[in-house]
Amino acid sequence: MLEVKLYDTVDDALLKFAVIISKSNGKWVFCKHKERDTFEVHGGHREFGEDIIETAKRELQ
């Protein structure tokens, strides 16, 4: 059984990566993975010194 927990706030230091689910012109945005034949949502690891918003912006760009 899968357990899902939702939080109102979280300690910023615990956020290690960002996953971005976005829409553009009413359509969901996916990217093709460069090493697999799959389409996925944007995301990636947080770089040293980045805040999580910077990580999300960089990964979506």
From TrEMBL:
<dbReference type="InterPro" id="IPR015797">
    <property type="entry name" value="NUDIX_hydrolase-like_dom_sf"/>
</dbReference>
<protein>
    <submittedName>
        <fullName>DNA mismatch repair protein MutT</fullName>
    </submittedName>
</protein>
